[in-house]
């Protein structure tokens, strides 16, 4: 009887260890998840980068309710269950890596897929270009969501050639 109980204890330990390993292995080898609203917005450039690098990923899109309330319930009921330190959209989950914030996600993907440049000069140029692009985006969004969009559109379009010259 004693030999059988030792065998069961050892084999049970082996089974638990195997299942734990399999769970951790499968978590590491699952496709990453990008979570964002069901719009292009901040996540679209991240999607393009992932497609460019041919990364298979789950594109988790949260729907907002109709106007005028624009319910965020689909996101808020899941928001605190994902293990994110700073629950926000967009988020990116890649195995044990769980992160939010657009610039942090870009920085992570740039390092992971060797898109940061190999010299300090190239890294600085990437950082500056990203920051300038974010400023350009912010300027555009301010106009796009402004009730006076039609009157603001022409001056913005006139400034585009100069704004985009260095890109």
Strand order of the largest sheet: 2-1-3-4
What is the straight-line distance between the termini?
A: 77 Å
**Over the alpha carbons, how many angstroms does the gyration radius reach?**
23 Å
What sort of overall outline do the alpha carbons produce when their principal axes are compared? Answer: flat
* Oligomerization status of the protein chains: single chain
Strand content: 5-15%
Spans with pLDDT under 50 lasting ≥5 residues? none
Characterize the main sheet: 4 strands, mixed
Name the structural class. alpha+beta
Helical fraction: 55-70%
Strand runs, count: 4
- What is the string of helix and strand elements? HEHEHEEHHH
Number of helices: 6
Average pLDDT: 87
What does this structure look like?
- With 167 residues, the chain is of the alpha+beta class.
- 55% of the residues lie in helices and 11% in strands.
- The protein has 6 helices and 4 strands, in the order αβαβαββααα.
- The chain has helices spanning 2-28, 44-52, 73-76, 102-112, 120-144, 149-164; strands spanning 33-37, 58-62, 91-94, 97-100.
- A 4-stranded mixed beta sheet has the order 2-1-3-4, covered by helices on one side.
- Helix 2 links the parallel strand 1 and strand 2.
- It is flat.
- The mean pLDDT is 87.
List the helices and strands and how they pair.
Elements lengths: L1 H27 L4 E5 L6 H9 L5 E5 L10 H4 L14 E4 L2 E4 L1 H11 L7 H25 L4 H16 L3
Parallel strand pairs: 1-2
Antiparallel strand pairs: 1-3, 3-4
Name a few traits of the molecule:
167 residues; alpha+beta; four-stranded mixed β-sheet; flat
């Amino acid at each position: 009887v004693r030999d059988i109980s030792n065998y069961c204890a050892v084999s049970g330990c082996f089974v638990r260890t195997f299942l734990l390993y399999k769970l951790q292995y499968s978590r590491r080898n699952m496709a990453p998840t990008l979570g964002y609203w069901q719009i292009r917005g901040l996540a679209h450039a991240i999607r393009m980068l992932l497609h460019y690098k041919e990364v298979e990923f789950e594109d988790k899109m949260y729907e907002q309710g109709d106007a005028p309330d624009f319910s965020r319930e689909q996101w808020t009921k899941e928001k605190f269950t994902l293990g994110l330190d700073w629950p926000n959209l967009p988020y990116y989950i890649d195995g044990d890596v769980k992160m939010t914030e657009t610039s942090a996600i870009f920085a992570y993907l740039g390092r992971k897929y060797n898109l940061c440049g190999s010299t300090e000069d190239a890294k600085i140029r990437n950082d500056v270009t990203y920051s300038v692009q974010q400023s350009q985006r912010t300027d555009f969004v301010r106009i796009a969501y402004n009730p006076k969009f039609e009157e603001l559109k022409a001056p913005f379009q006139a400034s585009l050639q100069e704004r985009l010259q260095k890109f």
